[in-house]
Here is the input.
Amino acid sequence: MSYFLTEDQRLIQQAVDEFCQNPDTQAAMAADLATPGFPVNSWKALGEQGYIAAYVPEEFGGMGMDHTTQLAIIEVLARYSYPALEALAAHHIAMSALTYWGTADQKAKYLPGMCTGETVACAALNDPAGSFNFSEWTFGIEPDGDDFRITTTKVMVTNAHHADLKFIFSPRADGNGVGSAYIVRKGTEGLTTGHQEQRVVPIGGVDWGTIEVRDVQVAGEDVLHDTGFGQLFLQTGFMEAGMMAVVAGESAFQMALDYTSQRTNRGKPLAAKQAVAHRLVNMAIRSETSKQLCYTAARLWSDKRYEEAARLCSMAKIDGCEGASANIHEATVLHGGLGYTPSAQIGVMNAMAVSWEIAETPPDVQRDVLARSLGIPLD
Ligand SMILES: Cc1cc2nc3c(=O)[nH]c(=O)nc-3n(C[C@H](O)[C@H](O)[C@H](O)COP(=O)(O)OP(=O)(O)OC[C@H]3O[C@@H](n4cnc5c(N)ncnc54)[C@H](O)[C@@H]3O)c2cc1C
Here is the structure.
């Protein structure tokens, strides 16, 4: 937790904790984990509680709170490895684009359904040529009166198949980032979402695949343009991804502490050995510092200090994911040979840690962005 959550935010965290332990929620989670594809049951439960849109104003169907509250909710959901969490992260990228790039009419049209979860969205940015290879993205666009006709392919998109609304991003004309977002409804002629990607860790509850649009007509009123907020709308996703990783890193610490406390060597717990104890302490430091970075980013964002918040969001993503990877690695080693067996679960976490690093902008690319924002004369 953050040391500076308000009383209301603490109560919400407590409510989320109770929600996750509720037998109905547990049943929804189990059903989704056992079934490949979009986690319909745990998504529905999330929407019913209002946890999808803590920061969106009440007039658009949100809880009217802030990003700190949203992050506090995510922290608790992550502790339970909530199956719809990844779907939520993807949905949030689309929601963020709408919040910071959308007109009042576009928000009124789309946000209420997205806040309750009745309407699921995905954010399709990743081009087969490379996520950040914007100048080589293949994106055909033809004006058609007030409308546009678009042709493109996007790959490895979360919620690709199930999403009612596909937010499909074009590259900026100068090749430096994403330009506009075209909202395409499921079922639109010319849109297909066939191929589902497989994962290293084949856990259920994930819809991850390809979106193809061929000469699809998008009404002008359904296109989001950057009205000056720039690429910053993507940053809130970074603090969320950072938090999900941090919580996994904390679990790794706890698993390592439990194991080395009960496993003995010459009559004493392994954790009593200074080398092991220091490894454990380092794990705790990593989790603590990354988590406070995530919460500080959220607080700055809530205070509308976007430039500073953006920098911390990137740092939180890098630090959270790399710290979690390091913790999970350490925990695996501290489990000894058992750590390399499926029963310890820690092997599965290793594969998850890599996915957090890659998704929502890998650390190398984040560092490039940070370098520029810090005034480092990068090539
Ligand atoms: C679990 C998961 C969920 C995902 N969900 C979505 C989604 O909902 N929507 C979506 O659009 N995409 C999604 N993706 C795709 C993800 O955004 C990309 O895989 C990621 O951004 C890396 O892009 P790439 O695969 O094209 O790798 P490449 O561009 O081939 O890059 C490979 C590696 O090279 C390095 N690299 C690449 N470019 C640069 C650069 N400019 N500077 C320095 N280093 C660089 C990085 O280390 C990178 O990891 C998801 C991916 C994962 C793993």
Summary: The chain is about 50% helix and 15% strand. The first strand starts at residue 121 and ends at 124.
